[in-house]
Amino acid sequence: MFEQELFAGWGDMDFNSHMKNTAYLDKSADVRMLYFAEQGFSMTEFMRLRIGPVVMKDEIEYFREFHLLDRMTVRLTMAGLSNDGSRMVIRNEFFRGETLAARVTSTVGWLDLTNRKLTSPPEPLLRALDKIDKIEDFVVLPGSVR
Predict the structure, then answer these.
(1) Reduced to 3 states, what is the DSSP secondary structure of residue 74?
(2) What does CATH list as the number for 2-141?
(3) In the structure, what pLDDT confidence band is assigned to residue 143 with cuts at 50, 70 and 90?
(4) Contacts by 87-94, CB closer than 8 A, 24 or more apart
(5) pLDDT of residue 63 exceeding 80
């Protein structure tokens, strides 16, 4: 299981003194990119391949608050993936200790940076996607490439 230990920083706070919604999205993206980098897909490699992840939809569910400097564990799982890897639903769960505090579910595709169209990832990246732990109700998605 891929997870990262993070903390709620000064720039993550909102007027109500808890972590703002966009901070959950930013930390989710950071954890995804840390996973890809660990699998050999750094930003340099994505630029070489001329592809990048593009988020088409995010959904955030809140269960508990995070306050300034609270430590959190952010877990990465796969909720859905197309056979060609062109479409996926990635889930990030935020834990305070053992307690689930929030969940971000993102629908993501791969953008061909030259043609500005959705594409399928190369085989090594598809293998990296397939290695992400799948949730219990994982679904196979239709592909996005025509």
Answers:
(1) strand
(2) 3.10.129.10
(3) confident
(4) 87/118, 87/141, 87/142, 87/143, 87/144, 88/129, 88/141, 89/139, 89/141, 90/28, 90/32, 90/132, 91/135, 92/24, 92/27, 92/28, 92/31, 92/32, 94/24, 94/27, 94/66
(5) yes
For 88-109, write each residue's pLDDT tens digit.
999 999 999 999 999 999 999 9
User: What are the angstrom distances between the C-alpha of 109 and each of 20, 65, 79, 84?
Assistant: 25, 30, 14, 11
| Residue 86 tokens, joined | 């062109």
- In the 8-state DSSP scheme, what is residue 28? H
